[in-house]
Design a protein that fits this description.
Elements: E1 26-30, H1 34-47, E2 57-62, H2 64-77, E3 85-89, H3 105-111, E4 113-117, E5 120-126, E6 131-136, E7 139-144, E8 150-156, E9 159-167, E10 169-173, H4 181-184, E11 196-202, E12 213-216, E13 221-226, E14 233-237, E15 240-242, E16 245-252, E17 258-262, H5 268-275
Parallel strand pairs: 1-2, 2-3, 3-17
Antiparallel strand pairs: 4-17, 5-6, 5-16, 7-10, 7-14, 8-9, 8-13, 10-11, 11-12, 13-16, 14-15
Length: about 280
């Protein structure tokens, strides 16, 4: 049986200091929409565009989904030190993106604040015995596959904390992802520096009053699927879905550091804090 490795004691160093605005090499990516493609065309004409392997920063034009895809792509290319990503909103919500403005883009990028994100590592074991490993920047979620409610057993650091949870599913969210699916499932918003993860049930039926838990970021969380043949469950880490799972292990990967860049007035820490007081 494969188990998750121990959490690293410290995160790797952040991305290297950025060059001066006049020396910044930008690589532009965009969502597959007319609005995003038009924005990319104008910005490339104005500031140029370099291949990803020559860039200092990736500029992502789209919504939160495109930003997550870009972070995963940056990680796949350079796991030891992924390129920082500066996003501008050409989508809908854009919670993780900066305001779209075309003027003085290199200056904005050079002055941006760096926010470090650590993804979750998921090891999902299927009923067949196959194991799949994937990373979730926002969350790892378990979801019932049929009309039958899921039955889950939840273990934290080797201790069974919930022998049986009857539900539509459950999820573990990072602080950055706590305002996404986790919030929709009535989970808590977690400040970036809190050092905790949110464990949240999705439509819990039994026990009815269990609303989830806040766990230290070092916690190793294991979900065991009960009655897996009658009540099949899938596991999803951001965009990676594994069907018919038997066991799912989740832990934060402190050895992986992703860097998001934000204009000082749009600091992510402040945006997450403000979200707790939103009407």
């Amino acid at each position: 049986m494969t188990t998750l490795p121990p959490a690293a004691d410290a995160a790797p160093s952040l991305s290297a200091p950025l060059p001066a605005p006049e020396d910044l090499r930008l690589a532009f990516v965009c969502a597959d929409t007319d609005e995003a493609r038009s924005a990319r065309t104008r910005l490339v004409h104005r500031y140029g565009n370099v291949p990803l392997d020559q860039a200092d920063v990736i500029v992502a034009l789209g919504g939160d989904g495109l930003l997550l895809e870009t972070l995963h792509h940056a990680l796949a290319r350079r796991r030891d030190r992924p390129l920082p990503v500066y996003g501008m909103n050409r989508g809908s919500v854009g919670f993780l993106l900066n305001t779209y403005r075309e003027d003085e883009l290199p200056e904005r990028v050079a002055k941006a604040q760096h926010v470090t994100l650590h993804p979750l590592q998921m090891i999902a074991t299927r009923v067949s015995g196959e194991q799949v490993t994937a990373l979730g920047i926002n969350e790892v979620s378990l979801l019932r596959e049929t009309r039958q409610a899921a039955k889950l057993r939840i273990t934290v650091d080797g201790v069974v904390r919930l022998p049986e949870l009857i539900c539509d599913g459950a999820l573990v969210a990072t602080p950055a992802g706590s305002t996404a699916y986790n919030l929709s499932a009535h989970g808590p918003i977690v400040p970036l520096g809190a050092g905790v993860l949110a464990l949240t049930p999705i439509s819990a039926f039994r026990p009815r009053r269990w609303r989830g838990a806040l766990l230290p970021h070092t916690a190793a969380i294991t979900f065991e699927i009960l009655e897996e043949a009658k009540r099949p469950v899938s596991a999803v880490a951001d965009f990676s879905e594994v069907r018919e799972v038997l066991r799912v292990e989740v832990r934060e990967s402190r050895d992986i550091a992703l860097t998001l860049l934000f204009d000082p007035e749009l600091n992510l820490e402040e945006r997450i804090l403000k979200e707790q007081f939103a009407p």
